[in-house]
Design goal:
The chain is globular. With 845 residues, the protein is an alpha+beta fold. The strands form 14 sheets. Strands 37, 38, 39, 40, 41 and 42 form a 6-stranded antiparallel β-sheet that branches. A 5-stranded parallel β-sheet has the order 43-44-47-48-50, sandwiched between helices. It has 11 helices and 50 strands.
């Protein structure tokens, strides 16, 4: 593209690719401008980085003595007990290696490694004594971890096409064994290596647990398709299959609305693999049938909770497992614990490990996007006892032999004996930490950047919702932008190329972000969320307006709004931290670095230090949302006054947690009004629009009440006949466009404003680059119910009433879109008033 044109002196200067060109208007010719920028190019120098900041995946060896880690795009092996060598297995900034998996004999690491720019399944020597070996050849694409069978003969793995494969390691033959409605990323081999248990997505949206028999060459359904199930785990003795199932449906009612959610529905279950197999948790007799058996050798308390010795480890002989598939779905029992949001089930001898995730809601904003941490539990099947092993756990793994457990948390890795019931405390803590001190990784920045651009191109190819890439020659795009890679000089250049390359697809939601970008330290300025006017004569600042925002929420209101501070518009700011403000001095200079820090202000009713009063506040790091919340409050008051209290007003910041908060807070106190404006302008998008529309589209069935409050309640709750209008603009996109389109399709009311952005294809953004950055791939495109046209993407939603804001009017406080909506609704109310009916006479009985 030709970019950044600037005209002057009869020429137009512009950027083309990575050069500056000059177009001579008179002659109509262009010439390249020779630019020389002497530089040490420090960002291109090889350097050492902290690999823990970009640790993307890891797993244990069979005995748990080693851990294989993917960090910064390469693979490393380290000990889990005591300090030792951290061995670098791969070393290439030009080719990324992902999701390593150690073979049962500890000699090889299976991982997805880029070969000629495409992922292939390679076996890397675990001690670097042999060259990597490619196992067959797979189609270009993206792949999940390859899991070894315990005998080391097979590997199971999933791909982005929703297939599950098994690979014969000796021959390199890849066999697709099943496929689902979404990616298959959880699978585990039986101890005898014959069976593979996994969960697959069904058309109904649930997951089903299945077992593939490598001898019969077919799969068998294990769980009921009407119950969402997954995370299968094998009993080491071959008696049971465990998995997690959403069996306990206990609806939670909303506190203010007639709606519900289902939370904490998951429990572990046990399936008897043999038809004559006994299930645990049965009622017990007065005689223990195992009383004559010799008990296991007792373990001391420290070994149960602390580190374990690697010496003298002998795995039990693996017996062939028999599975009677007939009637297997009925041979099930629920583990007797309280249900929760459980994931990541693992099984060892007579014990289970799993993680519980607490539902903390969608706010504060942004937390729903973070990787969740959970509580790691241990469940003793014989004792029927649940114990909390650790909290704030990010991930964990159990060695294939069931002896070692390692969990990851913010402060690194902790190693315990599998089956432990409590994490160590006090002086025992250091002994259980996996010591990775001194671990650094050397990188070649430019090579990394080349690999990142190639991977980003490949991810779009593999996940973009249109296999034809919107008609773009995607290979040609790689040729075009790949030619620029040798001139990349910074991580910002990478972002620039990604933006231009993604732009070729002409689609919204092709984002890119983050990465190892060199940035200076930012020092914020404390803000008072107030408008102040400078008085040149005295140097003091007059407080013209204080933005109340959503007080008493202190994060959403001015620090000056607290009533006990007694600060009002018209007062003067005369000193900060006891030092008077000088003439011509901007008071904000005194607040640099003061965001969130106690700061003393001197305020007065007059522009003078005499009689000034000192107060202490915590300035805000940003006042944008405070001003926004104040605007909402003032706009609602404007609508209320203009309509005589007949029209409600709700603005939605986004279609995520904050938007739901606003609707849940602002709709109930306005529900009884016969008209309402839903302001969808400047909405940041999300995924909850249909929930809000469903609420607005409720049809009233009945009005009811007591003899003293007749007609104050409707069924469904807070439903009524009302006139609605929606406001939209070009700054609103993504899921806010869903609300606009549904408003039109469901004929809820007029949509007023300008056409929306037109970016609607859904994304994830869950595949980070090697340096911690990432990109999104538009994956979920939508079409209309008749299958005649694609929805919204590229075009946006056209309003019923096209009406643009005038800049001078809006900046001057006049919102002609809002005024149109008020006028339209008031005319409808005048022509046909909407009131809740009074109760009819009660007939005698």
């Amino acid at each position: 593209d030709v970019r950044w044109p600037s005209m002057g002196d009869g020429k137009i200067v512009f950027q083309h690719k990575m050069d500056i060109w000059s177009f001579d208007i008179a002659s109509g010719t262009s010439s390249q401008v020779a630019v020389k920028l002497p530089s040490d190019r420090l960002q291109l120098r090889e350097r050492f980085v902290d690999p823990m900041k970009t640790l993307h995946s890891w797993g244990l060896s069979k005995d748990g003595e080693r851990i294989a880690m993917e960090a910064r795009g390469d693979v490393f092996i380290a000990r889990t007990s005591k300090k030792g060598l951290i061995r670098r297995i791969t070393e290439s900034s030009l080719a990324r290696t992902r999701v390593p998996s150690l073979s049962p004999d500890g000699k090889w690491i299976a991982a997805w490694t880029e070969v000629d720019g495409e992922e292939q399944l390679l076996l890397h020597s675990a001690d670097n004594s042999a060259a990597p070996r490619q196992v067959g050849k797979v189609e270009p694409g993206w792949h999940f971890r390859a899991e070894w069978s315990p005998d080391g003969k097979s590997l199971a793995w999933g791909d982005q096409r929703y297939n599950l494969h098994v690979t014969d390691v000796a021959t390199g033959t890849h066999t697709a064994i099943d496929a689902g409605e979404f990616e298959i990323g959880r699978y585990v081999w039986s101890p005898d290596s014959r069976y593979l248990a996994y969960d697959v997505s069904l058309p109904n949206g649930y997951s089903q647990v299945r077992i593939w028999d490598s001898k019969a060459k077919r799969w068998f359904a294990i769980s009921d398709p009407s119950v969402d199930s997954g995370y299968a785990a094998w009993d080491p003795k071959g008696r049971y299959l465990y998995y997690l199932a959403d069996l306990v449906i206990n609806p939670y009612l909303d506190r203010t609305e007639a709606r519900f959610i289902v939370n904490d529905a998951t429990v572990p279950v046990v399936v008897a693999l043999q038809a004559n197999g006994a299930l645990p948790f049965a009622p017990r007799s007065d005689v223990d049938p195992k009383k004559d058996e010799k008990p296991e050798e007792a373990k001391d308390e420290k070994s149960a909770k602390g580190p374990i010795s690697p010496a003298d480890r002998k795995d039990e002989k693996v017996e062939p497992i028999r599975i009677d598939f007939d009637g297997i779905a009925t041979r099930i029992v629920q583990v007797p614990i309280a249900p929760g949001n459980y994931i990541a089930l693992r099984a060892i001898a007579d014990k289970l490990h799993f993680v519980g995730i607490e539902n903390k809601g969608m706010l504060p904003e942004g937390e729903e996007d973070d990787e969740p941490t959970g509580t790691l539990f241990t469940y003793d099947i014989e004792k029927e006892k649940l114990s909390t092993l650790a909290t704030e756990v990010e991930d964990y793994d159990v060695s294939m032999n069931g002896k070692v457990l390692v969990y990851q948390s913010e402060d690194g890795f902790t190693r315990l004996e599998a089956g432990a019931t409590a994490a160590p405390k006090g002086e025992d803590v250091p002994d259980t930490k996996v010591d990775l001190s001194g671990w650094t990784v050397k990188i070649n920045p430019r090579d990394e950047w080349k690999q990142i651009v190639r991977e980003a191109w490949r991810l779009q190819r593999d996940f973009f919702y249109d296999v034809k890439m919107h008609g773009v020659d995607w290979r040609g795009v790689w040729t075009q932008y790949g030619s620029l890679l040798d001139r990349i000089a910074s991580r910002d250049d990478v972002s620039d190329i990604l933006g231009e390359m993604f732009g070729e697809l002409s689609v919204g939601h092709t984002y890119h972000w983050g990465g190892d970008v060199r940035r200076g330290k930012s020092v914020g300025t404390g803000l008072l969320a107030a408008d102040l006017e400078h008085d040149a004569a005295t140097g003091f600042w007059k407080i013209a307006k204080i933005y109340a925002g959503d007080y008493p929420d202190l994060k959403w209101s001015s620090p000056l709004v607290r009533p006990d501070l007694r600060v009002k518009p018209g007062m003067w700011l005369v000193a900060i931290d006891g030092r008077p403000l000088a003439k011509g001095e901007d008071y904000l200079r005194r607040l640099v670095g003061r965001a969130g820090v106690e700061t003393e202000l001197s305020v007065n009713d007059k522009p003078s230090l005499d009689g000034a009063r000192r107060i202490v506040v915590k300035p805000l790091g940003s006042d944008t949302k405070v001003r926004y919340a104040t605007w909402i409050r003032e706009t609602r008051a404007y609508v209320d006054k203009a309509s005589g209290g007949k029209i409600g007003y709700i603005h939605l910041y986004d279609m995520g947690g904050l938007g739901l908060k606003q609707f849940s807070r602002d709709f109930p106190p306005q529900w009884e009004r016969p008209a309402m404006i839903i302001d969808d302008r400047w909405n940041h998008g999300g995924f909850v629009a249909s929930m809000i529309v469903a609420h607005l589209d409720r049809k009233m069935f009945s009005v009811y009440g007591t003899r003293y409050a007749s007609g104050k309640v409707t069924e469904p709750n807070r439903s009524r006949d009302r006139y609605l209008a929606a406001l939209i603009n070009r700054q609103g996109g993504s899921d806010c466009e869903t609300l606009a389109q549904e408003f039109k399709d469901f004929k809820l009311g007029p949509v007023i404003g300008t056409r929306t952005w037109g970016g609607w294809v859904g994304i994830r953004g869950d595949k980070p680059f090697r340096d911690g950055g990432g990109s999104s791939q538009p994956e979920w495109g939508g079409w209309d119910p008749k299958g005649q046209a694609w929805q919204i993407e590229g075009r946006g939603v056209d309003p019923d009433v096209l009406l643009d804001l005038t800049p001078d009017g809006f900046l001057g406080g006049k919102d002609n879109q809002l005024d149109y909506a008020i006028d339209d609704l008031m005319k409808k109310l005048a022509a046909e008033p909407l009131t809740l009916p009074a109760p009819p006479p009660i007939l005698p009985r």
